[in-house]
Design goal:
Blueprint: H1 2-7, H2 10-46, E1 51-52, E2 57-63, E3 69-76, E4 80-81, H3 82-89, H4 91-97, E5 117-121, E6 127-130, E7 134-135, E8 143-144, E9 153-158, E10 165-170, E11 176-181, E12 191-194, E13 199-203
Antiparallel strand pairs: 1-4, 2-3, 5-6, 5-13, 7-8, 8-12, 9-10, 10-11, 11-12
Helix pairs in contact: 3-4
Length: 204
């Protein structure tokens, strides 16, 4: 529709070429700028000596590979620098797990996983959730109506979006897992809405 009006006037044709040239030049400049920002950003994180985590001890419930409850132990919390976490996790998981970002819905590798197994912390291997409490929430994120052991997670108030939510973290390494909401199924009525990038799935 707009193409017909422009082509009737040669001057509009020239303007269109210039506009396209400016558009592509602007787009290229934006890509180059973003790429340069990323190149400068990455080494800074990799070399960061900022401590991420709170030293201390925590009670953790251990589970066997087949999901059987084992011992309850007092273990030292895992504390590392941002650089160490970044090198261990990579850019995507680091942003989610250590900087409390959120993966796009329907993008994680376990949101539609239905096999029996355990979901363990990507950072420290602590058992967090079982497939036995997983349900289809329709949100695009792995959802559970209960953790595998309440000792293995920590819930904290989160006001980062201007509304009060409850953040869920791994108790041992303070990894950001997601949030818990009160609109889940029975028997708890809770929905632990987790990031796939914060956990890895181990089939039992």
């Amino acid at each position: 529709m707009f193409e017909t009006n422009i082509s009737q006037d040669p001057r509009n044709h020239d303007s269109r070429k210039i506009t396209r040239r400016v558009f592509f030049a602007s787009g290229t400049a934006a890509i180059v700028t973003a790429g340069a920002a990323w190149l400068f950003r990455t080494p800074g994180i990799e070399a960061s000596a900022t401590i991420h985590g709170t030293p201390g001890q925590v009670i953790i419930v251990n589970f066997s590979p087949d999901g059987a409850r084992l011992s309850v132990e007092m273990l030292p919390k895992i504390v590392k620098t941002d650089g160490e976490w970044y090198r261990q996790l990579g850019a995507n998981s680091f942003g989610i797990v250590r900087q409390a970002d959120t993966e796009m819905p329907f993008s994680g590798i376990t949101w539609k996983e239905h096999a029996p197994g355990l979901y363990r912390c990507l950072c420290c291997e602590t058992a967090l959730f079982s497939s036995k409490t997983k349900f289809e929430s329709g949100t695009g994120w792995p959802s559970f109506w209960a953790p595998i052991a309440t000792e293995n997670i920590v819930e904290k108030p989160d006001l980062s979006l201007g509304v009060e939510r409850t953040e869920v973290q791994c108790a041992r390494c303070e990894a950001h897992l997601g949030h818990v909401f009160s609109d889940g199924p029975q028997p708890t009525g809770l929905r632990y809405c987790m990031n796939s990038a914060s956990m890895h799935f181990v089939k039992t």
